[in-house]
C-alpha cells in the first residue's frame, strides 16, 4: 500500500520516562532536497518574471542609467533639468535621517530609476506601434518593399535579445474592431455565390436594415470593450462557443494529434510512455519558467503566448446552467507528496485493471454530467479520486489494442484516428486539457480539450516532446529507457470508485456518437509544398481550392466553408474564420467542370481565386475578418435585448465544410531532410455538421500532405473515403494545369531566366 509505505517515514514510541523519537535520515534528506528544489524553482521564476517584466530592456540597463546619473553629479552636469534637485528638496532634511550627500545620491538614483522605467515603457509602446503595422503580410511572396525592410529592421532593433516566452506580451497590439460597413460588405460578398437572386436580395434588405438601425449602437459597446479589455473577442469566444455549450464534447469539440507517421522509436509500451511523460514534464518545467522561445513570424514578429499558460493541470468542469468558471487551472505548487517534495502528478488509466469504472466522467452531455458530478462525485472516495484526476498535470491512458499507420493494413490510419478521437468512450478523460494515449505497440497520441487553447498550442508541445523523445532521451538496443533506476520514487496510488448502475448505463448513448463517426486518413504523396511553390502559388490556397473542387464533385453544390486562421499577432488572440467559398473559387470550379474551357483559361481563373483567398486569409490574420466581429455584435445585442434578424440569420448558418491546417512550428527541432522518417501525421477533429465534412490537413515537408477527413455514417450524402478520393483527384487535376504552355507567368519567367543566363554567358 502506498499510504503505508509513506507513513513509516518517522516513528515514535511513548515510554514512562518520556518520548523516544527516531528520525529517518532518508526523510530528512528528502525534506532538505525538497526545500532546495522549491527555493531554486522560485528563484528562477522570479528572475524570469523580472526579465520578462522589464523587456525589451534588461535589469543591467538600470545599473547603466544609475551610473550615468551618478557620474553627472561629479562633473556638475544636470541632465534631469533640475528634477534631481527637486527630488532632493522633498527628501527629509534632518541630519538624523540622511546627510546632504546621501540625499543627493538617493535623488539621482530615484530619478535614474524613474527615467529607466519611462524608457522601458517608451520602448514597449514603440514596439507595439511597430507591430501594429501589417503591410508586410500583404506583399507578394519573395518580394519586400523598402518600407517593409526598414520596418523589419526597426522591429528587430526594438525587440531586444534572448526574449523569453512571455517577453513580448505587453508589446503586442490589441485586436482592432473592424468597421461595420466593411464587415457587412464582406459578408454579403461571401454569401453571394451561395444564394439565388431572391435569397441574396432578402439578405441585402436585412443587412441594410441592421446597418441603418442597430449597428452603430452595438458597435459603440464593442469599441468600448476593445479599449478596456485586452481582446474584445477571446473571452466571449471561450465562454459562449465552448463553455456554454451543453452537448457532449467528445467528437463534437475535442481534437486529436497523431504520433510520428512512419517510425516508432520503441515497441515497448511502458518505455515509450515513460520517455514521453518525461519529455512532457521537461516541457512543463520550461513553461513554468517561461524559458521557451516565443513563436515569431518571419523569425521576427512575435505571437501571443497566453494560451500556453493553461496547458497543464487544467480541467473543464461541467456546469448545469452556464459555462462560467468551468475551466479550472490548478496551481502546480498545490501538488506535494508526503515529504513535501513537489510531484508531477499524472493520472493513469489501465483498461484491464480499472474495469470500465470511468464511464460517465468523460463524455456525458454537460448537464447530466454536472448533475451526476454533484450527486455521485462530491464526497467519499469518488471525490478524492475525481480531485486527483482534475488537478493532475494530464491524463495518461494505457490502451491494450495496437494502433498506428501500417501500409500493409487497409485504412489503418482511419482506425488510429477514431481511437484517438473517442476511443471506447470510457477510456479517455475528455475534460482534461489533454489526454496522452499509449498503445501496446509503442505508438502514442493526444486527445485535447478545445476550450482552453487551439490546436497549434498543443502541436507546439507535441513537436517538442517527439523531438526530445527520439533525439535526446532515446532508448537502449532492447527498447528500454536509458538511465538508472530511481528506487526512491513513491509508489502509484490506485484510485477508488463507487459507480452506480444509472451512471454506467450512460455509456450506450455515447457509444452511438462514436460509432457514427466516419473517418478517413488520406496520405497524398503525388507532390507537396515543394512543387506547389514552384508553381508560384500559396500551398494553402492551392489546397483550399482543391477542397472546393472536391466538395462540388462530391455533393454537386457549393456550401459555406470554414477555414480557421489565427489572430495571435494580437494580445490574447485566438482564431478567425476565412470563408473559402468565394465567387472566384466558384468560378474556378465551374471552369474545371466546363469541358469547353481551356486549361489556360482555367489556370488564369485559378490564379485570381488563389489571390482572392490569400487576401482574405491575410485580412483575417490582421484583425479584419468577418465572423468574430459579427459574433461579438450578436453577443452585445443579446445583452441589450436588441433583436436583429440579420445577426440571427448570420449566426445560424451551417458550415457544411469545416477545414483547418495544422502548422509545423518548430522546424529547427528535426531536420527532415536528414531524417525523412521522423515526420508527424498531424491531427483532426470530428464533423461539424450532421451532413457535412470536417477536413484537417498538414503539409509535411516538401513532398507529402496528410488529410484527416470526418463525416457521419448516419448521413446518406457523405462518405469520408469517397471525399478523400475526390480531394486526391482535385489536387492532381489542378497541378496538371501548371504546364508552361498554359501559364503565361511560367513562360515569362522562363524567358527572364534565359535572358539572365544569356547575359551571364556573354
UniProtKB/TrEMBL annotation:
What domain of life does the UniProt record list for this protein's source?
Eukaryota
What compartments host this protein? Mitochondrion outer membrane
Pathway, per record:
Lipid metabolism; fatty acid beta-oxidation
Which part of the chain is the Choline/carnitine acyltransferase domain? 175-727
Record keywords, A-Z: Acyltransferase, Fatty acid metabolism, Lipid metabolism, Membrane, Mitochondrion, Mitochondrion outer membrane, Transferase, Transmembrane, Transmembrane helix, Transport
Statement: the UniProt record of this protein carries the keyword Mitochondrion: yes
Recorded hits in PROSITE patterns, A to Z, give:
ACYLTRANSF_C_1, ACYLTRANSF_C_2
EC numbers: 2.3.1.21
Membrane topology value: Multi-pass membrane protein
An example Gene Ontology CC term for this record: mitochondrial outer membrane
- What molecular functions are annotated in GO for this chain? carnitine O-palmitoyltransferase activity
Q: Where is the Carnitine O-palmitoyltransferase N-terminal domain?
A: 1-47
Q: What are the recorded Gene Ontology BP terms?
A: carnitine metabolic process; fatty acid beta-oxidation; long-chain fatty acid transport
Report which reactions are catalysed by this protein: 4,8-dimethylnonanoyl-CoA + (R)-carnitine = O-4,8-dimethylnonanoyl-(R)-carnitine + CoA; (R)-carnitine + hexadecanoyl-CoA = O-hexadecanoyl-(R)-carnitine + CoA
Membrane-spanning segments: 50-75, 104-123
Q: Where is the active site?
A: 450 (proton acceptor)
Q: Does the keyword Translocase apply?
A: no
Family membership, please give it.
Belongs to the carnitine/choline acetyltransferase family.
What the protein does comes down to: Catalyzes the transfer of the acyl group of long-chain fatty acid-CoA conjugates onto carnitine, an essential step for the mitochondrial uptake of long-chain fatty acids and their subsequent beta-oxidation in the mitochondrion.
User: This chain belongs to which protein, by name?
Assistant: Carnitine O-palmitoyltransferase 1, muscle isoform
Q: Which organism is it from?
A: Dicentrarchus labrax (European seabass)
